[in-house]
Amino acid sequence: MTDIMHDWRSKRFIIPEHYLTDGAKCVILTDVSYWAKNVDDLVVWCESRNCKTMGMVVEFGDEATLLEFILRWA
What we know:
Blueprint: E1 13-14, E2 25-29, H1 32-48, E3 52-54, E4 57-60, H2 63-73
């Protein structure tokens, strides 16, 4: 098993393994300075796609929205 945070410094977010989230589709935001600069855009993006933000975690209702997040914010 790899450490979920092993490369957190080099990425804007990480996608935890499904067994760590009880099957929830989510990302953990890791680049605090990037997200601080883009928080308003992120909130609007999440609200328009019915995503749930909880601190530094964004939870998605389906795989398609998770994929859209990855393509938009990576």
